Amino acid sequence: MTSDIIKYDNFLKLEDFKKIQDKLAEPNWYYGHGSYRPGQSGRKNVFWCMSLQKDDYFTNYLLNIIEETTQKEYILHDVYANGHTFGTMGDFHVDWNDNTGRTFLYYANANWKPEWCGKTMFNVNGNIQYFDPKPNSALFFPGCIPHCAEATSKLFTDLRVTIAWKLQLK
């Protein structure tokens, strides 16, 4: 299943990357988002979130780029930005309970240093795989693979931001 995790470097054009930066600078963040773990009611670890579900740029324009890149069509179930500061991390979770769901995870920070930690972790049959949050890169994977955001280090004093598209194959 590791081969099912596809990484895209330099995913968007510079003008699109800048437009995303402008959108993420808007004061539309809220604290309290988290992931549901299988067998758990409620959320344990919470972090920042910005809903993008009503923004045509994310639901149509960028979704079309994702569909062109992956050569598949999807039903969009949700799109939002996740934000992590020092001390926040996600729980291992799945986004979908069967193989029809996909997650497209875009790394939206303008720069990143390895000492800031903040990797995305996948549990693939007991083997932990790590992916660095490289700016303007993305991961595309089956939503049934358990994954989470690693906490950022004390050296990181900003917001680690990803944008997640929750998709279902048409």
Q: Figure out the total of helices.
A: 2
Low confidence ranges: none
Q: Which whole number gives the mean pLDDT?
A: 91
**Beta strand count:** 10
Biggest sheet architecture: 7 strands, antiparallel
What value does the Rg take, in angstroms?
A: 15 Å
Shape annotation? globular
Elements, N to C (H/E): EHEEHEEEEEEE
Structural class determined from secondary elements: alpha+beta
Helix content: 10-25%
Approximate strand percentage = 35-45%
C-alpha end-to-end distance: 21 Å
Strand order of the largest sheet: 1-8-5-10-4-3-2
Description of the structure:
The protein has helices at residues 14-24, 56-70; strands spanning 6-8, 30-34, 46-51, 74-84, 101-107, 120-124, 127-131, 138-142, 147-149, 160-169. 15% of the residues lie in helices and 35% in strands. It has 170 residues and is an alpha+beta fold. The two termini are 21 Å apart.
Please give the structural blueprint.
Elements: E1 6-8, H1 14-24, E2 30-34, E3 46-51, H2 56-70, E4 74-84, E5 101-107, E6 120-124, E7 127-131, E8 138-142, E9 147-149, E10 160-169
Antiparallel strand pairs: 1-8, 2-3, 3-4, 4-10, 5-8, 5-10, 6-7, 6-9
Keywords:
alpha+beta; 2 helices; 170 residues; 7-stranded antiparallel beta sheet; globular; 3-stranded antiparallel beta sheet
